[in-house]
Amino acid sequence: MMELKGWKDAWVIFKRDLCVDRFYLLWNVMFMLYFGVMFSTMLYSVSRDEGVFHPLADCLMLVLMPIVGFYFSRRSFSYLRENSYTQMLWYYRILPIPSRTIMKSRHLQLITSTIFNGFIFFGTIFLIHWIWKLDMNMGIVQFIAFAVTWLGYTLCINGLYIYMELLKKGKVYFWLSMILMLGTVVVSVAISIFNGSLVRYTIDLSVRYSLLSPLMWGSLLIGFVMLYLMGILTVRKLNDRDLI
């Protein structure tokens, strides 16, 4: 019963935050549409095996896909200036709201935004290719496998972002995020040096195995396991965090 109440309270927090920041959702939708339009032509080039675009496509997907797991909000825009995430935790601790409930509400936000933003982003890509008849060598089922594979990565990497968001002050969170982004850039460059391409590899496995793609299921499994383990670790440290 206590576990069920925790999820109900988490849902209340999630709905409250969504209502307060509902006007920011417009920017959220616009960015996902822009991201989808920008990446659609690049994905077409990669699917045609034009190697010059492989490093850039990998870099963009590794750096920008974590944003799919976020809703834009006043809090997310002002965390560096106002340390807004720490202020939020301080407010919830006064109420008081358990750390587990805060984590559950954050996970609800992540799951819903990943589905919502992912639908807009990948839907835009598919729609553009369908309208302009750009053959990606993928049917709709294979494209879904491709999209789900990258959404698994979104869940995985956002486990780290939630950890930093709830346990670090605004400036520290900013610099750690920059380091994490730089790390993904280095990874994409290293892969290209060895003539590899994550995006191309994802396309190949999605075309070959469709919804049975081992990479897709592995990505989802790792994503949810990473999210669960980082959630446990974050809650443990959150209970002892000094918010002053």
TrEMBL record:
It comes from Paenibacillus aceti. The keyword Phosphoprotein does not apply. The chain crosses the membrane at residues 23-46, 52-72, 110-132, 138-161, 173-194, 214-235. It comes from the Bacteria. Keywords: Membrane, Transmembrane, Transmembrane helix. The keyword Transmembrane helix applies. This is ABC transporter permease.
